[in-house]
């Protein structure tokens, strides 16, 4: 797969060959769905908790006798039907992580990178150098690449804190050292340094 390589000023400085295994993978919507679902499930804290009728204090005594009062029969004041009663099927702390083989996760990333590459939405840059954090400089960089305002995933490898600080206040710009399937799916363009592209080839 040949991808165009740009410099920091947005000028095309040529093309470079990258692995077809990473940037020309066949489509697999089911795998992408499962990988995204796994990521979103892992974001859930799972700390929700409520008390069942067995855990609510009180309710040991039968409120009134079974028959003869004219009222509905009741065995406990902590019945879920009563005020201050327990909760039916009360939620309890749990882990929402979903199992997905590592090979499947890697393939889902390859599928999405390939999809963006086919659309011409994978942008490889030679390098980016920012002397001091500057949102203005990062905005100019996005303008030069003609992707200002779009949802952009910027993959930096090695990670550069100055670049991160320059772009963290820009809406729809997500700067990361690596990326998962959901990050790529949730972006229109994937911008990566040449080193990051090589790292993807090595890992995937």
From TrEMBL:
<comment type="function">
    <text>Forms part of the polypeptide exit tunnel.</text>
</comment>
<comment type="subunit">
    <text>Part of the 50S ribosomal subunit.</text>
</comment>
<keyword id="KW-0699">rRNA-binding</keyword>
<dbReference type="GO" id="GO:0005840">
    <property type="term" value="C:ribosome"/>
</dbReference>
<keyword id="KW-0689">Ribosomal protein</keyword>
<dbReference type="InterPro" id="IPR023574">
    <property type="entry name" value="Ribosomal_uL4_dom_sf"/>
</dbReference>
<keyword id="KW-0687">Ribonucleoprotein</keyword>
<dbReference type="Pfam" id="PF00573">
    <property type="entry name" value="Ribosomal_L4"/>
</dbReference>
<comment type="similarity">
    <text>Belongs to the universal ribosomal protein uL4 family.</text>
</comment>
<dbReference type="GO" id="GO:1990904">
    <property type="term" value="C:ribonucleoprotein complex"/>
</dbReference>
<dbReference type="InterPro" id="IPR002136">
    <property type="entry name" value="Ribosomal_uL4"/>
</dbReference>
<keyword id="KW-0694">RNA-binding</keyword>
<dbReference type="GO" id="GO:0003735">
    <property type="term" value="F:structural constituent of ribosome"/>
</dbReference>
<dbReference type="InterPro" id="IPR013005">
    <property type="entry name" value="Ribosomal_uL4-like"/>
</dbReference>
<dbReference type="GO" id="GO:0019843">
    <property type="term" value="F:rRNA binding"/>
</dbReference>
<feature type="region of interest" description="Disordered">
    <location>
        <begin position="50"/>
        <end position="71"/>
    </location>
</feature>
<dbReference type="GO" id="GO:0006412">
    <property type="term" value="P:translation"/>
</dbReference>
<protein>
    <recommendedName>
        <fullName>Large ribosomal subunit protein uL4</fullName>
    </recommendedName>
</protein>
<comment type="function">
    <text>One of the primary rRNA binding proteins, this protein initially binds near the 5'-end of the 23S rRNA. It is important during the early stages of 50S assembly. It makes multiple contacts with different domains of the 23S rRNA in the assembled 50S subunit and ribosome.</text>
</comment>
């Amino acid at each position: 797969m040949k991808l165009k390589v740009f410099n920091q000023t947005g000028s095309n400085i040529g093309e470079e060959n990258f692995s077809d295994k990473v940037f020309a993978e066949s489509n697999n919507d089911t795998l992408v769905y499962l990988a995204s679902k796994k990521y979103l499930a892992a974001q859930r804290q799972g700390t929700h908790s409520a008390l069942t009728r067995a855990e609510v204090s009180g309710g040991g005594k039968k409120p009134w006798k079974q028959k003869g009062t004219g009222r509905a029969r009741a065995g406990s004041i902590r019945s879920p039907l009563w005020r201050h009663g327990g909760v039916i099927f009360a939620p309890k702390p749990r882990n929402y992580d979903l199992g997905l083989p590592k090979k499947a996760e890697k393939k889902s990333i390859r599928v999405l990178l390939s999809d963006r590459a086919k659309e011409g939405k994978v942008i490889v840059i030679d390098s980016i150098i920012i002397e001091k954090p500057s949102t203005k400089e990062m905005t100019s960089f996005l303008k030069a690449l003609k992707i200002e305002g779009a949802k952009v995933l910027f993959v930096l490898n090695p990670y550069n804190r100055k670049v991160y600080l320059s772009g963290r206040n820009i809406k729809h710009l997500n700067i990361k050292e690596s990326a998962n399937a959901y990050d790529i799916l949730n972006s229109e363009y994937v911008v990566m340094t040449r080193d990051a592209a090589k790292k993807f080839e090595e890992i995937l």
